[in-house]
Design brief:
Elements: E1 10-14, E2 24-29, E3 32-35, E4 44-50, E5 57-62, E6 66-72, E7 80-84, E8 90-92, E9 105-109, E10 117-122
Antiparallel strand pairs: 1-5, 2-3, 2-4, 4-5, 6-10, 7-8, 7-9, 9-10
């Protein structure tokens, strides 16, 4: 049996000029990706599907369902996996205090304090 998801969420992001089509990338800064450096990373964005030679932007197919630019931070939050706090605001995932099953997606544009608008990729 062969099954394939037909609707893919692809995003355009900043990237190093050295990435290549087919490479798996992770979030490394605000709307910026880098080549994956560790298997099993919680910061994987997806696979590069379009990149022109020497360009600093690329298109990445993601495993996520939504890209949102209307979420609010519950505290300062860096790019990476996030969870929801009791008030329904995004906070950074912490492996010491959160179950990995609670991860709602990736923060792809950070916030320096609570109550700031962030960008997310969500499952």
């Amino acid at each position: 049996m062969y099954q394939k998801k037909s609707d893919i969420l692809a995003i355009k992001v900043t990237c190093p000029d050295s990435v290549i089509v087919g490479q798996v990338v992770v979030i490394s800064g605000d709307n910026t990706v880098a080549a994956i450096s560790a298997a099993g990373s919680l910061t994987v964005v997806g696979t590069v599907v379009q990149h022109l030679e020497d360009a600093t932007t690329c298109v990445v197919e993601t495993k996520f369902r939504e890209r949102r630019d209307d979420r609010v931070s519950g505290a300062a939050i860096a790019v990476g996996p996030f969870v929801w706090n009791a008030a329904g605001k995004a906070i950074a995932y912490d492996s010491e205090s959160h179950d990995s099953a609670a991860i709602a997606g990736l923060c792809i544009k950070a916030a320096s304090a609570a109550d700031q608008t962030i960008e997310t990729l969500e499952y």
